[in-house]
Amino acid sequence: MTTSLVLGPMMRYVDETSASIWVETRSDSRVSVRAGGRDWTARTFAVHGHHYALVEADGLEPGAVLPYTLEIDGAHVWPDPASEFPPPVIATLKPGKPLRLAYGSCRTSVPHDESGNRTHGVDSLRAYALAMASGDNRPWPDLVAFLGDQVYADLTSEQMQQFIRARRDIDEPPGEELKDYEEYAHLYNLAWSDPANRWLLSTLPSAMIFDDHDIRDDWNASLSWKREMEATSWWHGRIVSGLASYWVYQHLGNLSPQERQNDAIWQRIAGHQGEAEPDVSAELDSFAERADRNPESYRWSYCRDFGDTRLIVVDSRAARNLDPEARALLDDDEMAWLDGQMRGGFRHLLVGTSLPFLLPMGLHHVESWNEAISEGAWGKYPARAGEKLRQAVDLEHWGAFQKSFQDVAAMAAEVADGKRGPSPDTVTFLSGDVHFSYVAEVERSSGSRIIQAVCSPIRNPLPRLMRYFGAVMAYGLASPVGALVARSARVPNPPFRWKRVAGPWFTNNLATLEVVPEGLKLWWQTGIVEDGDELHPRLETVASLTVASREETTSRPVERGFDRLSRRRAEPS
């Protein structure tokens, strides 16, 4: 096979009549997608010596499933005729079909051999891909949502470090962490080039949002954190290359054709008339620098409707206001946008946020207390200690931004109570980040159910000792202690209480959500190696549950069903 295709194809935004296919190529070229007797072509654009194209296949029939091929400058490059995987397809959305969505977060890019599986566990995304490719007739999701830490720019693998050593002194800052666009491009290649995952991404539409490790641990945790980073010699290059590469590799494919037309960088690409491909390196770097300096200048969040289900994906990292006088997880502009999207009239309102909105309640109290003392509730010296604690143990979720938490909680309650249009069956927050999976529910006697469903990690499990410690802290010690210290710092009580319904599960997982007649069905699946075959893990269900609509049942908030093996694997082990 020719090597003109570097990475991809990746099936990105898909609706009822169009599909967007993303690729990285070796050089300036024309990329064509052929399906159903038609073809669509796009010219590449350049960023720092790399070449990309986004091909829009439009005019498709709703509900169509079309095998496709990819050509670069007229030469067939995908699929490989020798591939063991089924042909990739374009599957447009079918009107009236209930949504089926896979989701998860936190995936490291290490080999899938015995060594990689021993240190990082089996890649649940890869196990999912192998199950999809096996032809067992299981229904495919309409979309997979990656909710943060698609790449780890600060905790690099040996393969990534080898690349870094070949081009610079790894003993000089930023050391083993990423420095520039070239290193980000290589990291994305490591993340998405495994044949099984590459096939899955070529045929299953995907949506993405960043979290901290896509840039650096604790990204935008506080103003003190940001000032500390800005004082280094390397941070400016890191944040610019991180956001620029995120726009290219992740965000561009989130956009609908209409949204792309309103994007300034895409307008520059689409409107280019020259003979050579457009090079947008300078424009993209300036854009990234501006987006970091002034978060209100660009929106990374997005919203999509799938029939009677709305999916809102919220940027909970770049859109922060770190000014101590107006500290917020979402700045005013972003909060106003979210307020406009949080509406009833749907059967299910899904809110994707990389950080769990409803942490275990004890941890929520601890984070709210830490925010209060870090901002001076107990005086100057405790504030310094609070800031150190905040950065040391990642106390920077929604609970650590109380104003934003209270505002969004009020929105969710108003939707659930029918004050923003007809109330849905559920308001469900989908999240990752914390490296354990669980389900929580707000305690309510009427209105819609408000649910938190977490899936983390896809591939980056906590060490065994940390699993036990995390479980004790999250659901044991933190509960009474957290409430006590929060009151001592005069933190307002949350507007509602919530409780754990299922979990925690510490295995690598990919979750799936499906709208079914009785409510919302969710399940978590992991990869299991059998007979020493590290490359062909079996997909196994860890847990499953159905969130029934309040009309369906009032006796139990959530119906659960675990088999014996799933219950055993769900324990910290």
Description of the structure:
By secondary structure, this protein is α+β, with helices and mostly antiparallel strands. 31% of the residues lie in helices and 24% in strands. It has helices at 114-120, 124-133, 158-165, 181-192, 195-203, 223-230, 235-251, 257-261, 264-270, 281-293, 332-341, 361-374, 380-392, 402-416, 464-488, 564-570, and strands at residues 5-14, 19-25, 30-35, 38-43, 45-47, 50-57, 65-72, 75-78, 89-91, 100-104, 143-146, 206-208, 302-306, 309-314, 348-353, 426-431, 437-442, 449-454, 498-505, 510-516, 519-528, 538-548, 559-560. The strands form 4 sheets. The protein has a 7-stranded mixed sheet with strand order 12-11-10-20-21-22-23.
Features:
alpha+beta, disordered C terminus, 7-stranded mixed sheet, 573 residues
Question: Total strand count, please?
Answer: 23
Mean pLDDT: 92
* Straight-line distance between termini: 44 Å
The largest sheet is: 7 strands, mixed
Q: Report the C-alpha radius of gyration, rounded.
A: 23 Å
Shape: globular
Helix content: 25-40%
How are the strands ordered across the major sheet? 12-11-10-20-21-22-23
Number of helices: 16
Derived structural class: alpha+beta
Strand residue percentage? 15-25%
Low-pLDDT windows of residues: 554-573
